[in-house]
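Input record (one chain):
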Amino acid sequence: MKLDKEKDPYLKLKKIFERTQKLIEAYHPDELAIEAPFYGKNVQSMLKLGRAQGVGIAAGITKGIPVFEYAPKKIKQSITGNGNASKEQVAAMLKNLLKYEEQPSYFDATDALSVAVCHYFQSSNPILKGGKAKDWKTFIKDNPDRVKG
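The corresponding structure, as predicted from the sequence alone:
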C-alpha cells in the first residue's frame, strides 16, 4: 500500500487500519506478529512508526486476534543468527529459507515477512510455547513422551 500521495497523517493511519482489517477479513489469521518499536535518532520518524504500529495492533485486537511483538534484534537473530544483520542479509536469508525466486522491490516486504517467520520459529519452539520449561534440559525432563530417543 502506497501512502505517499496522502498528505493528512491521520488519514494515512485510517487507511492502514482499514487495510489491515481487510487483510484480516480476507485471510483469517489466528495471530498477529509485529515488530516492536525501536529507538532511533529521528524522534519524528519513531513517533510516526509507533502510530502506524498502534493502528495495526488495534486492527488486530478489534478482530479478536492475539498480538505478538518482537524486537528488531530478535527478528534478525531468528532469521540470520545475527541480531545485527543488515536488511540485505535478512532478505537474502529469507530468500534461501523460503525458496522464492524474485526478490521483493522493497525491504518493507521482507521486513514484514521476517516478522512472520520469526513468529513461526518462536511459536514452534516447544520451550517457548508451553511457557513452563526455561531450557531444553527441563523440557526433556518434563516431556519424555515428546522426545524421540
